[in-house]
C-alpha cells in the first residue's frame, strides 16, 4: 500500500510539472514590457505592457500562482495570475517610495519589499493587508529570501550585502563592495552562494557567510547591471543593457546569448520547478 501511495505521489508530481505551461520559461522586464522567454523555442513574447515605469524585480507565489512585481515610477506593487491568459493587474500595495525589490514567502503568505528612496524594509500579507515597517536600510536595491535557514539578504547599493533573520533577531554584514553602485544580486540556494555584478563588469560570488569571495566572469564593460538570476547549474544575466545571457557555473564556461531585447533589461526571473515540487510535498 505504501509503495502504491508513493508511486501515485510521483505520478502526480510528474504530471503537475509536465502540465505546467511555464515549465521551461523565463520572465524578464524591459523599459516598457514584461517578456516571456521560452527555452524550447528560444523565442520571446510580450506578456504584459508596462507603460512608463521600470520593474527591477519579479517574484512568484507558487502557492497561489501569481506573478508579483514593483512598479518603480508608479510607486506600487502589483500582481497578475500566471499561467493565465488574463494578465489584468491587481494592486497589492501602493503609495510607496520607489520600490525596487520584492520577495515572496509563500509558506507564510508574506510579501517583503524595499523602498529605494525611502530606505525601508517592509512586509505585508500576500494580499496586501497588514502592512508592517520592519527596518530602515540605506539605498536598498535587492532583497532575496533563503528559506532553509530563514535569512533575508539585502543589497545596499553603495555599501554591501547584509543579511537578517526573518524576525530581525539577528543581522550581519556579508560583504562590502569595492566598486559601487551594485544593483543586482541573487542566491544560489543549492551551493549557498551569492552572485552579483559590480559596475566594473565583474561578476562576483561568495559563500552566504561572506567567505570564499571570487570573480566568476569579467564582462569588460563598465556600466550598471540590473539583472541576474541563479537557478540550478546556470547563471542568467543581462549585458550590453539589452542582451539576455546564460552562463554555466562551471569554471571557464563561455556565456551563451539567449535573446537580444529591443530595450534595456531590468530584471530576470527563472521559474524553479523545485519550488513547485516543494509546495506539492508541503501539502501532503
Characteristics of this structure?
284 residues; mainly beta; Neuraminidase; four-stranded antiparallel β-sheet; 10% helix; globular; disordered N terminus
Characterization of this structure:
The structure is a single chain. The chain is mostly beta strands. It has a single domain (25-282), classed as Neuraminidase, CATH 2.120.10. It has two helices and 24 strands. The chain has helices at residues 2-19, 273-282; strands at 25-29, 33-38, 43-49, 59-61, 66-71, 76-81, 90-93, 99-105, 110-115, 120-125, 132-136, 140-146, 151-156, 160-165, 171-176, 185-188, 193-197, 202-207, 214-218, 228-231, 234-239, 243-248, 256-260, 267-270. The strands form six sheets. It has a four-stranded antiparallel sheet, with no helix packed on it. Strands 4-5-6-7 form a four-stranded antiparallel sheet, with no helix packed on it. The longest helix is centred in the N-terminal third of the chain and has 18 residues, at 2-19. The chain is globular. The model is unreliable at 1-23 and 275-284 (pLDDT under 50).
Order of helix and strand elements from N to C terminus: HEEEEEEEEEEEEEEEEEEEEEEEEH
Name the CATH superfamily classification. TolB, C-terminal domain
- The fraction of residues in strands falls at over 45%
Note the total helix count.
Answer: 2
Shape estimate: globular
CATH topology, by name, is Neuraminidase
User: Which class do the helix and strand fractions yield?
Assistant: mainly beta
Number of strands: 24
Spatial ordering of strands, largest sheet: 3-2-1-24
The CATH architecture category equals: 6 Propeller
- How many domains make up the 3D coordinates? 1
* Radius of gyration, taken over Cα atoms and rounded to an integer in Å: 18 Å
Amino acid at each position: 500500500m505504501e509503495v502504491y501511495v508513493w508511486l501515485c505521489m510521483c505520478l502526480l508530481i510528474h504530471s503537475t510539472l509536465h502540465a505546467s505551461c511555464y515549465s521551461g520559461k523565463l520572465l524578464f522586464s524591459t523599459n516598457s514590457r514584461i517578456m516571456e522567454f521560452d527555452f524550447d523555442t528560444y523565442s520571446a513574447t510580450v506578456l504584459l505592457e508596462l507603460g512608463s515605469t521600470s520593474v527591477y524585480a519579479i517574484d512568484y507565489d507558487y502557492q497561489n500562482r501569481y506573478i508579483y512585481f514593483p512598479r518603480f515610477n508608479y510607486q506600487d506593487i502589483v500582481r497578475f495570475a500566471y499561467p493565465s491568459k488574463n494578465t489584468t493587474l491587481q494592486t497589492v500595495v501602493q503609495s510607496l517610495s520607489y520600490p525596487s525589490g520584492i520577495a515572496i514567502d509563500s509558506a507564510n503568505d508574506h510579501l517583503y519589499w524595499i523602498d529605494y528612496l525611502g530606505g525601508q524594509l517592509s512586509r505585508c500579507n500576500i494580499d496586501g493587508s497588514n502592512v508592517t515597517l520592519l527596518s530602515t536600510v540605506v539605498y536598498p536595491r535587492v532583497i532575496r529570501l533563503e528559506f532553509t535557514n530563514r535569512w533575508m539578504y539585502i543589497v545596499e547599493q553603495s555599501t554591501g550585502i547584509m543579511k537578517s533573520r526573518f524576525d530581525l533577531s539577528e543581522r550581519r554584514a556579508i560583504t562590502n563592495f569595492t566598486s559601487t553602485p551594485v544593483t543586482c544580486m541573487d542566491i544560489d540556494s543549492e551551493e549557498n552562494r551569492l552572485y552579483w555584478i559590480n559596475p566594473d563588469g565583474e561578476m562576483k560570488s561568495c559563500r552566504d557567510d561572506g567567505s570564499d569571495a571570487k570573480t566568476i566572469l569579467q564582462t569588460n564593460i563598465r556600466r550598471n547591471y540590473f539583472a541576474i538570476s541563479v537557478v540550478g547549474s546556470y547563471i542568467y544575466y543581462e549585458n550590453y543593457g539589452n542582451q539576455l545571457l546564460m552562463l554555466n557555473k562551471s569554471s571557464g564556461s563561455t556565456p551563451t546569448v539567449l535573446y537580444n531585447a529591443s530595450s534595456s533589461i531590468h530584471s530576470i526571473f527563472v521559474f524553479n520547478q523545485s519550488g513547485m515540487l516543494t509546495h506539492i510535498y508541503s501539502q501532503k
